[in-house]
Amino acid sequence: MANKTASTFLAKPVNHLYMLLVSAGALTFLGLIMVFSASSITAIDNQGSAASIVIRQLLFVAVSIPLAAYLSKLPIIRWEIIGRVGLVISIGLLGLLFIPGLGKTVNGNTNWINLKFFDVQPSEFAKLLMILWASYLLARKEKSGRHSTNVVKLIAPGFLIIMAMIMYGRDLGTTSVVAAILAGLLFVSGIQLRILGWITAAGALALAFLIATSGYRAQRFLVFLNPFAPEDYKNIGWQPAHSLLGLATGGLFGVGLGGSRQKWGNLPEAHTDFIFSVIGEELGLVGTLTVLILMAVLIYSIFRIALRAQDPMVRYACAGIGIWITVQAFLNIGSATSVLPVVGVTLPLVSYGGSALVVTLCAIGFVAGAALRDPAVRKEIVKKKSK
């Protein structure tokens, strides 16, 4: 009976929209709570107020939600205009980083624009813009019936330019996410698996080269399997080691909200890259499983909406957004659990970061708009309103 009820629920397209909105809203709300908890000590040290960081995050949420609601109603033709110039805008935004006095370096990565009152991370906007740009080109190819067009030549050069610009700022984590988006879109476009395999192998070799030619990256790569090694613990292994300590001490129900010990200076970037560890310490296994379930529901609903999209650009873009969130969540949680080397990417909707939050919620708005254009969804919504 339970399986039949679940199947009936998932069979209704309108429920995919509800799953999208509820999971995204719950992750954002949980993120606000955990950003407050994880950042309170750092905020007191730097700004003199425990709430200063979470207040900024709350302001970004307040801006993002109405913006996402507006974008969900934007007609496809407007999205096509944005997609057409997405590559140019991305290059322009990333190019601002190279202007002296404008680009800001944080933890060795020059990927922020200093606007005095707050900082902006152009690479976050480039992720969504590149998805829209590639989706526009792939959709135009599909509509024209040019099946012989080489999709690799169509979208890969643009992505390589953006990846090179991001990598010039030494941000390997974001570069990896953009590369994964490219690979995912190529797969969705129907490229032969043999060709995709060669591209993936080339990407792996390029990643190995970038790691091997940087002492710091090489150390991070080698240490993640055993961050507690005596020769590494107090140096490059400190961050992943204390991330694991936080997760390990949380137990089933955690030490209690606000009770994290690792955030007291032991775990750098506790409210950004390693917020999953603080969740595990304070809310325990129950908290981390809740995050994983909500993230799985979010990703599932995005791909289900993508499969039902009638417009090819919308279909490709929704798939690209799903790939982006999946890969970034995997990299963040993998780093926190020491399954992967520390790559320095945030947990979507949960970690602190204005640029990431605004762009991710705008992407959710795009997907919600795709669902609202579905005739079956509109019919169900009208039916509920008429009751």
From TrEMBL:
Reaction catalyzed: [GlcNAc-(1->4)-Mur2Ac(oyl-L-Ala-gamma-D-Glu-L-Lys-D-Ala-D-Ala)](n)-di-trans,octa-cis-undecaprenyl diphosphate + beta-D-GlcNAc-(1->4)-Mur2Ac(oyl-L-Ala-gamma-D-Glu-L-Lys-D-Ala-D-Ala)-di-trans,octa-cis-undecaprenyl diphosphate = [GlcNAc-(1->4)-Mur2Ac(oyl-L-Ala-gamma-D-Glu-L-Lys-D-Ala-D-Ala)](n+1)-di-trans,octa-cis-undecaprenyl diphosphate + di-trans,octa-cis-undecaprenyl diphosphate + H(+)
What InterPro entries does the record tag this protein with?
FtsW, FtsW/RodA
**Pathway linked to the protein:** Cell wall biogenesis; peptidoglycan biosynthesis
Enzyme type, top EC level = transferase
Q: Name one GO cellular component term.
A: cell division site
| Keywords in alphabetical order | Cell cycle, Cell division, Cell membrane, Cell shape, Cell wall biogenesis/degradation, Glycosyltransferase, Membrane, Peptidoglycan synthesis, Transferase, Transmembrane, Transmembrane helix
Give me the segments passing through the membrane.
Answer: 20-44, 50-69, 81-102, 122-139, 151-168, 174-191, 198-218, 283-307, 319-343, 349-372
Its annotated compartments are: Cell membrane
Entry's Gene Ontology molecular function annotations: lipid-linked peptidoglycan transporter activity; peptidoglycan glycosyltransferase activity
Which BP terms in the Gene Ontology apply to this protein?
cell division; cell wall organization; peptidoglycan biosynthetic process; regulation of cell shape
Please give the superkingdom of this protein's source: Bacteria
Q: Per the UniProt record, which EC number(s) apply here?
A: 2.4.99.28
Topology relative to the lipid bilayer, per the entry, is:
Multi-pass membrane protein
Main localisation: membrane
Which NCBIfam families does the entry mention? Answer: ftsW
Function summary = Peptidoglycan polymerase that is essential for cell division.
Which family does the similarity line name? Answer: Belongs to the SEDS family. FtsW subfamily.
Q: What is this protein called?
A: Probable peptidoglycan glycosyltransferase FtsW
Query: Species name for this entry?
Result: Candidatus Planktophila sulfonica
Q: What is the lineage of its organism?
A: Bacteria, Bacillati, Actinomycetota, Actinomycetes, Candidatus Nanopelagicales
